[in-house]
Amino acid sequence: MTSTINAFMANHHKECDEQFAQAEDAVANGHWEQGSALWHEFASELEKHFSREETILFPEFETVTGMTGGPTQMMRMEHEQMRALVVEINKAVESKEKDQFLALSETLMVTMQQHNMKEEQILYPMTDQSLPNAVEIIERMRDL
Fold this sequence. Notes:
- With 144 residues, the chain is an all-alpha fold.
- The protein has helices at residues 5-28, 32-65, 71-94, 98-130, 134-143.
- The chain has one domain (5-143): nmb1532 protein domain like (Four Helix Bundle (Hemerythrin (Met), subunit A), Up-down Bundle).
- It is 87% helix and 0% strand.
């Protein structure tokens, strides 16, 4: 059982990254049916990840620390940027535009890597230090 928020959320980052790479590989090789299915699984997991943060983790952190305009606000803004990219990538998948898919997915990958690094190196350690009920928060996020 994972006892730190950082470990739990970083593990989910890794799972999402693996799904993303599989989807990208399938599309790059012209396997649209498989690529589309894998892409939509990834997009669903990504949204679940954002939801865990936005509905559980960030509000808990903000309540305990009183910080509402700092790192969580920046993460929410980046989530919106990634959601917009997902919408555009969905269009590329639907129309089977491989070059568009690959260009947008490259942008999304770089954005996710930078975002995840900030969370894993800054925000999640701050949540682990600030939140005495980390195990309970992890359980709530797992159940979401």
